[in-house]
Amino acid sequence: MNRKLLAEGMLVAAVATAVVSVLTTWTRSGRRDRNGIATLESLDRLDLLDPPWDTALVVVSAAVPVFLAVAAAGVALGRRRVLAAGALTAGVVLAAWALVVLRSPLRAAPGPQLALISAFVLVVTTGVTTSAQRRQK
Q1: Given CB 3.0 to 4.6 Å as the disulfide criterion, which of 27, 44, 60, 119 pairs with 91?
Q2: Is residue 98 within 8 Å of 112, Cβ to Cβ?
Q3: Can the peptide bond before residue 52 be classed as cis, meaning omega within 30 degrees of 0?
Q4: Each residue's pLDDT tens digit in the chain (137 positions)?
Q5: Nearest to residue 16, comparing CAs of 128, 129, 131, 125?
């Protein structure tokens, strides 16, 4: 198996894990479980995010699926810069989002930890994939 194909497969798995991490339970309060997006909305409504970071984090976090789709398109089209831009942006935003939730007074579920792991894997596999594509040319 060639290195480029293996690297692309790892990146696709990292993108899928990142998507799953956003949709898993991030916090629990009472009988309600909240995914990443609902948790961020709760933090904003409870005024637990300081301006101007509150608006910026809500807007950018909502765009994480778009960044992940851009990364996947970069893999499919063989565009190294597109792949790197989408995956690195998604990884950084996902990590920041998870850290905000983990540092908040809300009771965290496994979602933020999975998001941190997937963000790390996303950034590492982006480096491996882009270097493999560079060597193929």
Answers
A1: 119
A2: yes
A3: yes
A4: 577 778 778 888 888 888 888 888 888 877 888 888 788 777 777 777 777 766 777 777 778 889 988 988 888 888 888 888 998 999 998 998 888 888 888 888 898 999 999 999 888 888 877 776 666 65
A5: 125
